[in-house]
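Box 3.1. Reading complex inputs
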Amino acid sequence: MDRASAIQQRERAFAEALKADGLRMTHQRLEVIRELARATHHPGADDIHRAVRERVPTISLDTVYRTLAALAARGLIERIAAPGAARFDPNVSGHHHFVCMRCGRVEDLDAGDVAPVAVPPEAARLGTVTFVRVEMTGLCNDCAAGGPH
Amino acid sequence: MDRASAIQQRERAFAEALKADGLRMTHQRLEVIRELARATHHPGADDIHRAVRERVPTISLDTVYRTLAALAARGLIERIAAPGAARFDPNVSGHHHFVCMRCGRVEDLDAGDVAPVAVPPEAARLGTVTFVRVEMTGLCNDCAAGGPH
DNA sequence: GTTACTGCAAACTTTTTGCACGACA
DNA sequence: TGTCGTGCAAAAAGTTTGCAGTAAC
């Protein structure tokens, strides 16, 4: 499957899941969904707002937040607590993250590239582990090259 | 080394590092450092403020934030972006986290309990990886037992 | 006696919420 | 047409900053 159709499929999946729950498919929601579906990095609410505003100039940041909350509540996207502002990850399937400690950008690492991590009994004693994510923190190439300070 | 002397050693290490940089050892800073050194969970700025206030009733939340920032800037503690408010991890040595998706509490998992994770070439291509942390997300026992909603 | 640190207050940022109007089904 | 969703504005919550007085060295 090529990238374009993968995006379209994800877009449709998001829309269907909301419709199935009786949510109305408004112009604004559709554009937020479209923006998320095509995202490769991990946009913040403000990034999405800025991008969607080019096509729907009147959309408010509140609506973006509400749509993101609706998707996150259904497990269709994941909210990542990042320094400064939360970021949203439209790719829920198992994968890992490279986080730049300077600029906060989050890049995906394919799960296949990282050896699987077993849940130790010490963790099971604390509670139920739903998923395991490896976070590799460091300096991205842009920042190492002396990006914006 | 028992727990009490480990705490004292950490406390001294924090204080020495700040003094070495020419920062003054005020009553307030010392108490914030003391609180961090003895912390086993991962307190937020407000937790520390509340705890220190019992001994220094006039300390302000600003001062707590400033001390935490000074320590974090020197790599003596780590700031963890958590949902709601940032938390601070006084244990910089390699270890992993169990994060409760409901209440946001963060528990340590000893590095020895989790198989080491190798940095794949895909990550090295994005930048320089400084450290690797495994995050096990799930529901802690308290929340599973129907804790505060 | 300097200089840095503190506390206060206010500013700022991110996110949430109440309300009246407008749009989807 | 009825209800849900939107935009606006204001409110919360967390964090940072400017300033004048205070304390460390």
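In summary: Chain A is about 40% helix and 20% strand.
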